[in-house]
Specification:
The protein is of the alpha+beta class. The protein has two domains: 1-29 and 81-127, no CATH class; 30-79. It is 30% helix and 33% strand. The chain has helices at 31-51, 62-78, and strands spanning 3-14, 20-28, 81-88, 97-99, 109-112, 119-124. Helix 1 runs antiparallel to helix 2. It is elongated. The structure holds zinc ion. The site of zinc ion has 7 residues, from loops.
């Protein structure tokens, strides 16, 4: 079962303004869910690898496809949680803004505020 929660301890800063709290929606995955997610990613790649075996020339991509399936599947299997949303109130409007998530998450993170188009730097409040 996925259990959406909220990670605390994130802080956002905009140049020339005081820091503000940023809340993140976090989805956590149980062991069964992790296996299913890994299978959903690796399965089609392995199926494609099997399908291209009889095609001359294209069959050379089989080791690449199998390797990709194993690496991505392993990564998914180890992923225990995922950030689904980032919200902060930088002060440009009356209500908090939903920040667009980048492809790769890591702190510190620099995002554009959808309200004022300012750069918002997001970091852990400890650092
Ligand atoms: Zn803003």
């Amino acid at each position: 079962m996925s259990s959406p929660g909220a990670a605390a301890g994130l802080r956002g800063t905009v140049y020339g303004k005081p820091p503000f709290a940023v809340s993140a929606g976090v989805e956590t995955f149980g062991p069964g869910q992790r296996r299913l997610r890994a299978l959903k990613l690796a399965g089609p790649l392995l199926l494609l690898a099997v399908l291209v075996i009889p095609i001359p020339g294209v069959h050379l991509s089989v080791p690449f496809l199998v390797g990709l399936a194993l690496v991505l599947g392993w990564r998914r299997l180890r992923q225990t949680e995922r950030i689904t949303s980032l919200q902060g109130h930088c002060g440009c409007s009356d209500r908090p803004q939903d920040y667009e998530l980048p492809d790769r998450l890591g702190l510190p993170l620099t995002l554009r505020c959808p309200g004022c188009r300012e750069f918002v730097k997001i970091e852990g409040s400890g650092g």
